[in-house]
Amino acid sequence: MARHPKERPASHGGMTRREVLKRSAVASLALPGGAALLDACSKPGTTNVSAHANGPGVGKYWPARSPYPLARQDSPVKWKLWRQPIKSGLAPEKGATLQIYNWADYIFPKVVKQFCAAYNCDYQVTTFNNMDEALNKMRLGQLQFDIFFPTPDILGKLVTGHLLQPLNHSYIPHLVSDGWETYQNPFYDQDWHYTVPYTVYTTGIGYRRDLIPDDQIRGMPDPYAILWDTKFKGQIGIYDDYREAISMALLKNGVTDLNTGNKKYINEAQKALVSLISAVDVRANINGSYIGIPKGTYDIHQSWSGDMVAAWFYTPKQNMKAWETLGYWFPSDRKGAVFNDTITIPASAQHPVLAHHFLDWMMTYHNAMLNFSWNGYQPPQRKAEPATLTTTTGYYGEPYVFPWMADAVVHESDFHTGYFEEELTPQVDQLWHNAWQAFNSGVS
Predict the structure, then answer these.
(1) DSSP letter at 130?
(2) What is the DSSP track for 275-319?
(3) Which residues contact 252 (CB under 8 A, 6 or more apart)?
(4) Per CATH, is 201-337+420-440 categorized as 3.40.190.10?
(5) Which residues of the chain form CATH 3.40.190.10?
(6) What is the pTM (predicted TM-score) of this model?
(7) Nearest to 54 by CA among 42, 36, 44
(8) What are the pLDDT digits (tens) for 75-132?
(9) How is domain 5-22+83-199+341-403 classified at the CATH fold level?
């Protein structure tokens, strides 16, 4: 059974969702055989117009050799229905065991148990360590799942491979009534044909407030530069994640395209990352923000907002004085790295009606916020006003987000002003990997 974040060990056999968020999404365009699929679509450097007309989706950014358009904020994609959704008005399957395929420790068991009590069913959670593993198992049909939690940057693979079923919106009214309007037409899945949103987050900087006053970091001309501050040598960390680390360096350099294929920008970001080694003896890891900062292993660490929101579970002493040492910075103009996770229904789901009801269950304000109390990652809920999240108490009797970490609250407007890491072409992805390898070769 999944444990509450406070009870999770620093490392265990099954990596947590955030420990591998994008570490393996690097792998492939790839459903296995993805390279061959690309080659079959068109010759290098050409655009196959007829293939686009009959392709799996409609979008303006369709690189040569790609079997589907790539979604961007300024180039949204509308995926076609490769089959019809289930019919409306069907009764949920009886005596079912809802099969959930998810990252480890990423959904509050209490929320799932309450759903099963309401719908007279049982459930089983199967976990995956990375998206590559998840895609392989789904493609091979090793297991049949009713619910799947993918990242949006692999949606093209899933739709093209017919691994997801289109959604019948009549079963999911709470996305419209309770969810952010943004997700009724997200740029990566226009008209939400295949996905509903799960959590939203930003990427900024976590820090020790007892060592770095809020006014100090917020008053810096470029707060990203604090990661290069030699005063904190040996106490600075970044994520062991090629997309996040390079994106942070790009932002420090003033580049806001976090999917860039510009070799000059990537090389400059590489140099910036490599300079961290001699400047501050930087360490790259995944749990440094939510575990390392509370325990004093790090003074400063690149951080996802949800990691710092949940970091209070890991302070050695569980009291307000200890929690007040935790800080999070994100640009005041909200122009930084933002993204979200999704929930979907696999094409092979054995209980598709029940699965639709589960998606709706997770879209309701009550259930979404109960889950937020447990995993620290904010759901995109209309009633969850940014100002109230720092004053309203959650399931554990503390505010959803402590008032001094208001930067960690995600705003719906962030998804218009912020910058997304989206799927890269194989050629661009290789440039990013080369830069990351150069950095890692100098880290002990």
Answers:
(1) S
(2) HHHHHH--EEESSIIIIIHHHTS-SEEEEEHHHHHHGGGG-SS-S
(3) 222, 224, 225, 227, 272
(4) yes
(5) 5-22+83-199+341-403, 201-337+420-440
(6) 0.88
(7) 42
(8) 999 999 999 999 999 999 999 999 999 988 899 999 999 999 999 999 999 998 777 7
(9) D-Maltodextrin-Binding Protein; domain 2 (3.40.190)
